[in-house]
Amino acid sequence: MAQWCYQSQYSCDDTCRDPSHWAALFPSCGGLRQSPINIVSSKVHVNSALPPFDFIGHTNTLNITVENKGHSAHFHLPQSVRLTGGALPGHYRASQFHFHWGGNGNPGSEHTIDGERFPMELHIVHIKEPYGTLAEAEHDLAGIALLGFLFEESADDHPHLDPIIAALGRVQNNGSTTVIPNFRLSDVIPSSRELHNYYRYVGSITTPGCEQAVTWTLFHKTLAISSRQLDAIVKQCRFWNGQPMTNIFRPTQPLDGRVVYRSSAVKPLSSAFHLWFCFLLAAALGTTGLIH
Predict the structure, then answer these.
(1) What is the C-alpha separation between 286 and 50, in angstroms, rounded?
(2) Are strands 214-219 and 144-154 parallel, antiparallel or unpaired?
(3) Residue 132, CB half-sphere, CA atoms under 13 Å: how many?
């Protein structure tokens, strides 16, 4: 079977199949619940039943393996990193995280917001318990929970991305691996109290076979990356055919009648503010004769 590839590879090597031809090799890639999508903010439905997440093991210090998979680099996570809440139907164990980026100064996120593509996107892949592998979870419509984070360019470096960039430089070729010692996922993504606001929709894996078994969560809060770090990331790795690993994103797919939801969660009141508010409320009720 012919190899699949991104458009940037296909432009140099027409022996592989670019995203517009993935469905010919992998029928699910032509399904009606494909990802990524363009999120039109004016058409999003607010859903008050989307609560915050509970992250487990995100602050643990880990030694994680990084592997060049030929199409991207995977950062493998242990099963002690877990996820609950967020209206997910069960408990989910982390599998790996990876990034999607552009090249030559072009943005490379997979999801877009109101047509805007962001510089880079982080995906954290979780598998529903009790499944042991991604292949097992793909047969459950809610078997995979994918967390997406969009990056925005900032004047300052992200303080914890340089070890990731260095690791990518050690896995330049397909199949090569390395280890990042003393890694904490909480160094890369914000704490759960900053992640109450997110988009939610049902979709698919964004690479072949495009299995439609994903509950997608795309957080409103963006992550920072400097132009120096972004330039460094896109220059580190090579595809399976030896070409530079750039523009590793699938174009957005039709919504096909799906609804995108937005959580209505708000930041919890601080204890001081809560006491102050209760005092004012009691005073107001007292002046109206409702408190005796």
Answers:
(1) 36
(2) parallel
(3) 0
3-state secondary structure of 169: helix
What is the per-residue pLDDT across 153-207, written as a single tens digit (0 to 9) for each? 999 999 999 999 999 999 999 999 999 999 999 999 999 899 999 999 999 999 9
Residue range 202-221, pLDDT digits in tens: 999 999 999 999 999 999 99
Burial label for 240, CB within 10 Å (0-12, 13-18, 19+), is: middle
Q: For 217, left (φ over 0), alpha (ψ -120 to 50), or beta?
A: beta
Residues of the chain with pLDDT below 70 are: 1-2, 10-13, 265-292
Q: Is 111 a catalytic residue?
A: no
Superfamily of domain 7-267: Alpha carbonic anhydrase (3.10.200.10)
3-state secondary structure of 155: coil
DSSP 8-state secondary structure symbol assigned to residue 157? P
Q: In whole angstroms, what is the distance from residue 18 CA to residue 4 CA?
A: 6
Which is catalytic among the residues 71, 98, 111, 196?
Answer: 71
Domains of the chain, by residue range, sit at: 7-267
